[in-house]
Amino acid sequence: xxxSAKPPGRSDPASLHMPxxxxxxxAGLVTNPDALYIDGTLGMxxxxxxxxxxxxxxxxxxxxxxxxxxxxxxxxLRRELGSRVTFVRGSYAGLPRYLRELHVSQVQGILLxxxxxxxxxxxxxxxxxxxxxxxxxMRFDASRDAPLSERxxxxxxxxxxxxxxLYGEVRRARGIGAAxxxxxxxxxxxxxxxxxxxxxxIAKGPEKNKTLARVFQAFRIEINDELRTxxxxxxxxxxxxxxxxxxxxxxxxxxxxRIVKRFLARESVDCxxxxxxxxxxxxxxxxxxxxxxxxxxxxxxxxxxxxRSRSAKLRIMERxx
Length: 321
Description:
Layout: H1 22-29, E1 36-39, H2 46-54, E2 60-65, H3 68-73, H4 75-81, E3 85-89, H5 95-101, E4 107-113, H6 118-123, H7 148-154, H8 157-168, H9 173-185, H10 192-200, H11 208-224, H12 226-240, E5 241-251, H13 254-267, E6 288-290, H14 300-305, E7 313-319
Parallel strand pairs: 1-2, 1-4, 2-3, 4-5
Antiparallel strand pairs: 5-7, 6-7
């Protein structure tokens, strides 16, 4: 799911899609054009199209998309790309199970783009942006669990504050949490603008929009369990790749990038025992190596065309033999 430029309208979501760092992703990920690749975050299919174009007629690709509404938008793309591509409605966290069902043990490459597509952000109508008055839902999969508006009425003030601090690093989180909890208890927390008004009781002036962005991010991460999903996937990643296979992960905020960075630090060494132990007791063997010491970022031309790409960080890694 890629960040993309601000759309001029709401009629054609796929045409508004501007996938991030496409040349870097394709160059870093595709090492065997005859093999099977995974796009774990399909979005509007921008990366999928580029990756498939880099493969030979023998190569194939599977794309995963959890958002039901967004998944429906890429049906024309599936017909256009033909039999070499398969789209799966579900989370990339389910990739191990899906491959077992296909009797496929490992793949050549996996891409995760952890941003939001323009469709999800601007056109889904589920409250992902504070700039539109929409139902306060924020679920990627609207068929599961309860929307944010219902959960806020059940969560104690302490939990709301914790979410804001942990996933949004929100300044004055206690005051904002108290304002949100107070409104939610009265039943006045049904839409995005209800949430905006509650935050506005505490956050004012030029910092208000930045605070709102962090608040919306925090609740979106919590309600979709985004960080735990990423951690679960990374735990399976080495076993999903062939030797020499690669993964490319694009993150858009420090919490995601920190998880990926820590995973690479752990999986790139043979021992993870505490330094004070005289001999290794963990038996851990290095499984991955980072191919870029620092994350890649968009170049100036891309930043000018797509300002939303400014926070993107791309880490590319390879499975060791």
